[in-house]
Amino acid sequence: MTNFVSRFLSIIMIVNHVLILAAGKGTRMGKIGENLPKVIWPVFEKSLLELQVAYAKQLAPKAKIYINLFNYSKEINAHIKKNPLSFENVVVIVEESVLDIGGAIHNLAGTLDYLGNLLVLNSDQFLYCEIEAVERALKRLETLDSLLFTYSVNSRDGYNALKMENNEFAGVILNQDLDDNIEIVTYTGMSLIRLEKMGSAQGESLFFETVANYKTNKIGLENITNFEYWDFGTIPRYHNSMTSLLNKIETSFGKFLIAQKAIDPDKINGGFYNSKSGLKYDDFEIIDKEIFFRDIVERV
């Protein structure tokens, strides 16, 4: 009976599971990233990982949340244990070898008997949209094997482009092969996967080979227009997002950060965040991140 119930629930179009990808090296975060794992870099008062868990709970309130770890697993686990309320009921999976994104998804899917609908989130990016966007995507998922959330950007932003045919995924074009200064559709790092449609795989594998392979699976693209996209995945993007937030506190994401107590409004505009004696987020060069982090590393 239990197995029957599990299989029945797996075909209902809800998000059953969420996987937050947090196993990477953080090589794009410079020297500081070698000592402070990217997923616990602070967004003011909270870490990226704490905020991703909070966002996952907002997007998929009925889902079980998983975090995969490999690099810096000891340091990240220590951070999780120091903040039990932020990670309540979250399952941490420490991988035994490098799996890449495709392998990480299959590793989790195997423990779930490849049942249910999985929402995949990157730990360093926020496609901040309304729950209704996920609900619309779930409706489309009924006729698909998986669905990739996308948005439109300029090719100069450095992202790869997705090829589309009839609103379905038809391949990746590397940024270096794109024309200059054109509008492209890129993958946000957020996707919905029907695990029972995926097929099984073991060991290390790439996302676009064993999970979202357009040659073997029906992959839809959901281009989001009413959203905010906040990227903390490289030092320049982290710097830009942090400084922009100070001037855009009334955005949906800014309000989310206030609700999660990640930003204290009293510290903006001449307060702690902008003061020379505390955290200074403006008028400094990227190379001076060591000075920037001197006052905040202990906070996380």
Question: What would the keywords be for this entry?
Answer:
300 residues; alpha/beta; Spore Coat Polysaccharide Biosynthesis Protein SpsA, Chain A; seven-stranded mixed sheet; two-stranded antiparallel sheet; disordered C terminus
CATH superfamily: Spore Coat Polysaccharide Biosynthesis Protein SpsA, Chain A
Number of domains: 1
End-to-end distance? 45 Å
Broad structural category: alpha/beta
Q: Which ranges are low-confidence, i.e. pLDDT below 50, for 5 or more consecutive residues?
A: 1-11, 275-300
- What is the fold named in CATH at topology level? Spore Coat Polysaccharide Biosynthesis Protein SpsA, Chain A
Tell me the helix content: 25-40%
Order of helices and strands: HEHEEHEHEHEEHEEEEHEEHHH
Give the mean pLDDT: 85
Question: Reading side by side through the largest sheet, how are the strands ordered?
Answer: 5-4-1-6-11-8-12
Largest sheet: 7 strands, mixed
The count of β-strands is 13
CATH class: Alpha Beta
Classify the beta-strand content into a percent band: 15-25%
Number of helices: 10
